[in-house]
Amino acid sequence: MAPTNFYDAETNCVINSGHLASSTNGFINSFISEMAQGIISDNGTQIWLGSSINSTNWSDGQPFSYKHWAKGEPSLSNGCVTMQISTSDWYAKSCDTPFSYFCEISASASEASPTPLPVTPQPKYTFPCDSEWTYFNVTNSCYKLGKMQKIIVKLLELI
């Protein structure tokens, strides 16, 4: 996927029933950084996150309460949030600058039929993940490395 400005990146995510990735806590922030490092060869790369600098919410509506700004950031009074993938630190950048990005898509928005994971003894819940997705129990989510170097995070609801 070619890098693009913040607005086009968010629009592309919305077209696919999602939003730019929301980094709502330290675990998710580290996860996004590590996954990006695994697919983007230049660890000096920055990627869009789903918020503008002065917003009180992420683009998916979640509150913007967790912050991981690099020292001296945000350096702009207006702009959008990027993540330096090698450090997971956030930077303020012009929303018109082209960067790569990740989309986060709710499991309920997926058109693919879910496939349950193998069950452990005495399972309490079944967590559906499509065959190309990997379930991660800490976040109760399925993750997939997609085509053209993009990650789509598929959040699940308990059945």
Automatic annotation (TrEMBL):
Coiled coil: none annotated. Residues 1-104 form the C-type lectin domain. Gene3D superfamilies: Mannose-Binding Protein A, subunit A (3.10.100.10). This is C-type lectin domain-containing protein. It holds the Pfam family Lectin_C. InterPro entries: C-type_lectin-like (IPR001304), C-type_lectin-like/link_sf (IPR016186), C-type_lectin/snaclec_domain (IPR050111), CTDL_fold (IPR016187). It comes from Acrobeloides nanus. It comes from the Eukaryota.
